[in-house]
Amino acid sequence: MSPEPRFDPARLDTAFALLEASSIGAVAAAVVTANGAVRQLSRGVAHLETGEPLSAQHAFDLASLTKVLVTLPEVLSLIEDGRLSINDRLGLHLPDAGWMQEGAGLGSVTVGQLLTHSAGLPAWMPLYTHPAPRADLIARVLQVSLEAAPGTAVKYSDLGFILLGEVVERLRGTGLEALARRRGWVHFRPQGPAVATERCPWRGRILQGEVHDENASALGGVSGHAGAFGTLEDVVRAAQAWLTDAVSPAMRALMTRPWVSEASGAPRGLGWMLGHPTCSGGELSSPQAFGHTGFTGTSLWVEPTRGYATVLLTNRVHPTRHGGDEIIHLRRRFANAIHAAYRGPA
After folding, report:
1. Is the pLDDT of residue 1 over 70?
2. Contact (CB, 8 A) for 239 and 312
3. In this predicted structure, what is the pLDDT of residue 101?
4. Residue 319 burial (CB < 10 Å; 0-12/13-18/19+)?
5. Is the pLDDT of residue 292 over 90?
6. Which residue, among 68, 260, 295, has the nearest Cα to 148 in the 3D structure?
7. Distance, CA of 184 to chain centre
8. Residue with more model confidence, 100 or 320
9. Cα 91 to the chain's mean position, in Å?
10. By C-alpha distance, which of 114, 153, 80 is closest to 270?
11. Beta-carbon count within 10 A of 221 CB
12. What does the pLDDT read at residue 324?
């Protein structure tokens, strides 16, 4: 574990002032070390139409942070337990995967390729447009055709993590919802107050307390790619774990190895984006950094060698996902301002 880091208080003030000035309705953020949050902020309203004030108890829809806060730790735990390998073919654990396909179909992709988004899968498919029981929707995903030969291209895919979630559930004999509850970081289907997201054309209402992602909703609100909710305190707790003992040192080294690169040159580890000048963690991030974003306006970046993490939770899709790229710039500006405030180990 890295020594406790030091920060310039005035520069931290500058970083958090960026969030105060944002036009996004609800914003919660923290700088986290192994000992907890050293600076945090919650500001705004949870629902623009009602004016409901944001509180520490409000859960944010974490969107694709589900991948790294629910699914990934379970996959890595199974690998450490020897029950799963990154070289296992998907068909070994989900025998129905691509069973009607000829050649190198879905059943031939590996767990590692799913984790690095290099399996050749499409980015997604609109499961929600043809409502059906969950088992039938998963059966559709299990027959999706590959767009590229496994291992030849990188394309971020929700489908890969839907399938990884199914692998986890079969090997554990327990659903993702129960596994998330047991781990104690984040949760599905919030019981307390939640921050509003989009006015959903498909559901005909502003969403609050139900998952924004349409496919996760069609799958019952629980999926390996999206569906988790968390308060700032919840995600701070998860960030602390990733800074310390979420996985063994050997697994951390495996996880943060640059397995593949995107077209931009940005490297990817197992499940995570890695530090790179183009990443959402800012050009001042270290090469050892790892992080992830969520479509609703969330992000988590971990700096293991510097000993801190940055958490940014927003509802940038409220009341609409369209017409706003503020979050793209805000993530990087906030992260860079935190990096600029870092003054080395205590």
Report:
1. no
2. no
3. 77
4. middle
5. yes
6. 260
7. 16
8. 320
9. 25
10. 114
11. 17
12. 67
